[in-house]
Amino acid sequence: MEGFRGRFRLAAIVILSIGIGLLAIYDFLKPIKNGCNMTYMYPTYIPISATKSLSSSKYGLYLYHEGWKKIDFNEHLKQLNGVPILFIPGNGGSYKQVRSMAAESDRAYEGGPPEPMLYQEAGVEMDETDIPKVNRYSRRLDWFAVDLEGEHSAMDGQILEEHTEYVVYAIHRILDQYKESRDAREKEGATESGSLPNNVILVGHSMGGFVARAAVVNPNLRKSAVETVVTLSTPHQSPPVALQPSLGHYYKYINQEWKKGYESQTLSRVIVVSISGGANDYQVRSKLESVEGIVPSTHGFMISSMGMKNVWLSMEHQVILWCNQVVVQVSHTLLSLVDQETGQPISAPRKRLTILTKMLHSGMPASISRQSNSLEQKEKKITSKIKWSDEGLEKDLYIKTPTVTILAMDGRRRWLDIKQLGSNGKTNFVLVTNLVPCYGVRLHLWPEKGSSSSDLPLSKRVIEVTSKIVQIPSGPAPRQIEPGSQTEQPPASGVFWLEPKDMDGFRFLTISVAPSPTVSGRPPPAASMAVGQFFNPQQGRKNFSPHSLLFSMYSGKDILIKEDHPIAMNVTFGVSLGLLPATVSVVTTGCGIKNPVEEEAGDMDSGSLCKLRCFPPVALAWDPTAGIHVFPNLYSRTIEVDSSPALWSSTHGSEHTNVLLLVDPHCSYKTTAVVSLTAGARRFMLLYFSQIIGFAFAVVFFGLMRQANAWEVDLPIPSLLCAVESNLKMPIPFLVLSIPPILTALFYSSCLTTSPIPAFTTFFFVSIICYLIANGIIIILILTTHILSHMVAKVHVFFKTRWIRDNSTNIFSFKVTRVINVNSSLATSIVAISLVCFVHPALGLLILLFSHATCCHHALCSYFTASSKARSEDLFGFKNKESESGFGTPDSTRSYGETQLEIYHHRHGLLILHLLSLLMFLPSLVAWFERLSMGHNFPWLLDSVLCMGVVLHGICDSKPEFNVFFQIPGMRGYEMRQGLVYLLGGYGCYLWGLDLAPYKAFYGMAVIGVLSFVFRIIETRNRRVGEPYYSNRKHSHRH
Q: Which of 775, 572, 544, 746 is nearest to 647 (CA)?
């Protein structure tokens, strides 16, 4: 029965792992609709000559020119006098990717600044008069780009360092080029005014953004040569998948240098802005793109393209480079950084940060709690182009109900009594509209007569709050079927929100709507809409519990919203929509119309008729890391936020998602949420892939621990598959191995650091699921190598026993071969360490892996040849009780065969561990092969040292009797054994997986390898002097 249970456990875990993987792949392959417009250009790339000081010429530097006409390169360089910007491509990227942003910035310069927005804007505490309003940009942008030969910088830390060195050179070369161009113009008699550029703006995509930051802290960079860095989809916190130790170390070093730079004020003038692609960027998550903890909030921020002004879209990793909505906004932002007087980037860091914030951020609040600005701040002034005034308004309307509806631009002013309508807990007011602020609608707060101690007249104490309308993306406007016919309600384009503190001291709120003929020459919208309401926020709270979300995969969870409900519904999802994206549908079930078919609409159904009365629902989702996500026209759509819940470093509140639903209070709705299984599997693999890799090392270490423990107590060494299955038994083995690291991580976060503590429930369950998936991956790897080993060994034995070979032609008859065969461990270590140190670590690990595979093959062949009962051996290592009855007896005829089987099981465990190590270095090996034609560089010292430790572990622990590390001083008979060391190594890999740093598993393997090597030396010395060797193993079976 136990054998059946073991097989069932293994099968269930494998099915779970394969199922999640297949669902994730299926969702990955789905086409993504991002809504981006294409950018068009006429590119020309002008090469910049290299100086003699450049040691290597494998990289290049280019200047972009927009235009279809052929130009003289030298003459164009001679006229260079703009603002220098350097574009740095990312992993495998091309310098030609600069074309979209460079072309749009050229058009933006020619077209001038966009018309000022009259919606609420984001900003920092700074006087608006310090930022001048301009009608034309003072100087165009000169876009340069570095050609990094399309190298994969995300795969190797050494490539990142080389790219950084060249970018530093490129910055200096660009600044020198401006001086050369000015000197050439002066020689021709031209008169020059103004100063030369002394700094370059850096724009980096993907890993290019990290290279830009690495260049800023490079000691060879000139002082103040870079003061502004803009990154697109750049992982700042850590590599997307931290596999190579040198890559993780380089990231940590650069981030530490940035922290020191701000602490010592050496980077006090550097501003960094990180733009993320949102949930559709499958390569880099928003959490990695955050600059929190690296750049202080006074010198930079991260913004998602979903919350970016005039963009409101999530996009793929490469799309962010050509998405027209993004590149246009970024182009205007960079042009706005140019000082109108000097023609150079603004020097004051605070002023630059203010401009970047206003140009990129929308006016949406940072959280659903709506930390609104005080009304005492200076409001935007209405521009002189807007002609309509109070005298142009017709008869005023006095609203008696908490809800006000506007369906036309009727030129009337509506009065709302705050004291009367805002009673009974209805303390908040929200207005949803498609009317443009100031041009179509204006809002004022009026105090009550005699309620203020001010001597100013009542008209002077009125505050206009129109600029508090926040812009939101609107869906497609409805088309009018025929002139004069009624259309569907248009989507909202703005939201106005007043909290109790905003209305304190005021008695009336007025909503003034412009008359249709006087909209400053603009055509009125096809349909006008504004719906406002005083409401109680507590009445609009709805909740989807974690239990209901999980069961919604089988049957959707419905929430009914009756008529006269609050206009703003705060819906809480108990599980983050970044972990379990849900398809939310909002269906209109009624709109106050009785018997619509008979009385009003003929053959129209109730749903179609209600669309004429109810504005389309809007959903606004907040995430602590990724910010705002807006979903207009929410009739049925999958809501997904780019959050990172259930991680060791997760921010507070990321375990759940708050969604604000703006729905028409005149209508009733049925809201349904159904979790998308494929999207959930995709998000799970994206978020926790690094964690699963670290757990996979822990699973192998735990399996090796069980093998070592079996040897210590004189039991047969089980196969690694049996060891993994035994570690999955409930409750003791599984809980003892999987729970302590989770509790350690929580204790460390709560007591030893100031970082937020992750939510225990989600953190615990997600970690356990990741651990089970890691077990499934290792089981698949074991089965694959196990089956291949048995097939090759059986084929070998079949031919060996049926054909007699000529001993004179045997390869083992050569003297050199016999010497190598006798000293195979020494030969393997010499070749492997040489490759690790002088060529590439992966090649050295490949030699070690070949040694394990060869030993496994010989042991398995010997077992099949020597054991007459080998045919009855279970292929996967599960034995029946009859076959175990005579096991372990040194005098039995099966002694040699069973010993060889033990050796196979032992080396097969090491093979799986070091195969994982080789797979970690495969991306770096691919990048190394791509660069062979450009010359050879020695590997990084850190990678070589750690892989030397891995090689020592594979050589020094190649035999199962090498099990004792050292005697505990003063305690005769007590030894530090390998089982305990493997257990500690497994716990370490588990914690490193939780920290999303699986490359640190190499530290554990290297430490074990060094300890094994030192103990082998001590053991050899002790045997030479005649000291006894202590071991609990009674029968070592050294044949």
A: 746
Instruction: Characterise 463 by phi-psi region: left (phi > 0), alpha (psi -120 to 50), beta (else).
Output: beta
* Interatomic CA distance for residues 984 and 989, integer angstroms: 9
By the 10 Å C-beta count (0-12 exposed, 13-18 middle, 19+ buried), 910 is classed as: buried
- Are 515 and 409 in contact by the 8 Å Cβ rule? The answer is yes
Task: Indicate the helix (H) or strand (E) that contains 465.
Answer: none
Q: For residue 970, with 0-12 CB atoms within 10 Å meaning exposed, 13-18 middle and 19 or more buried, which class applies?
A: exposed
pLDDT averaged over 10-residue windows placed end to end, the chain, 1039 residues: 79 95 94 88 92 75 90 88 95 94 94 83 55 78 94 90 94 93 84 82 96 96 95 94 91 95 94 94 92 93 91 93 94 93 90 92 67 44 54 77 88 91 90 89 82 57 87 74 62 91 90 72 65 91 88 82 91 91 90 55 58 86 85 88 88 84 91 91 94 96 94 89 93 92 89 76 93 97 94 87 56 50 79 93 95 92 72 51 43 68 93 96 90 79 94 89 60 70 95 94 94 84 67 47
1026: left (phi over 0), alpha (psi -120 to 50) or beta: left
Q: How many whole angstroms separate alpha carbon 443 and alpha carbon 926?
A: 62
Give the dihedral sign, CA 233/237/238/241.
negative
Euclidean distance between CA atoms 827 and 642, whole angstroms: 51
Residue ranges with strand state E in 291-409: 300-304, 397-399, 403-406
How far is Cα 444 from Cα 427, in angstroms, rounded to an integer? 17
For residues 706, 709, 713, 718, the Cα torsion angle rounded to the nearest 10 degrees is: 30
Angle, helices 841-866 vs 895-930, to 10°: value is: 160
pLDDT at 439: 84
Determine the pLDDT at residue 132: 59
In whole angstroms, what is the distance from residue 247 CA to residue 325 CA? 33
Pairwise CA distance, residues 500 & 418, whole Å: 10
Report the phi/psi class of residue 702: left, alpha or beta, with left for phi > 0 and alpha for psi in -120 to 50.
Answer: alpha
Is-contact 334 230, C-beta < 8 A? yes
pLDDT reported for residue 807: 47
Global pTM? 0.90
DSSP output for 153-200: TTS-HHHHHHHHHHHHHHHHHHHHHHHHHHHHHHHTT----SPPP---
CB-count exposure of residue 1038 (10 Å: 0-12, 13-18, 19+): exposed
In DSSP terms, 815 is beta-bridged to none
- Two tokens, residue 23: 């669902």
List own/partner pairs for 874-879 with CB under 8 A and 24 or more apart.
Answer: 875/786, 875/787, 875/790, 876/719, 876/721, 876/783, 876/786, 877/718, 877/719, 877/720, 877/721, 877/722, 877/786, 877/905, 878/3, 878/6, 878/7, 878/722
Structure tokens at 41: 């250009």
Q: What span, in angstroms and rounded, lies between the C-alpha atoms of 227 and 235? A: 20
984 CB-near residues (< 8 Å, 6+ apart): none
Give the length of the chain. Answer: 1039
- What distance in Å separates the CA atoms of residue 59 and residue 61, rounded to the nearest whole number? 7
Distance set, CA 979 to CA 252, 309, 774 (Å): 32, 58, 21
Q: What is the 3-state secondary structure (H, E, C) of 222-279?
A: CCCCCCEEEEECCCCCCCCCCCCHHHHHHHHHHHHHHHHHHHCCCCCCCEEEEEECHH
Token pair in block for residue 234: 């750049």
pLDDT number for residue 593: 62
Pairing of strands 300-304, 271-276: parallel
Structure tokens at 765: 């369950």
**Contact between residue 409 and residue 513 where contact means Cβ atoms under 8 Å apart:** yes
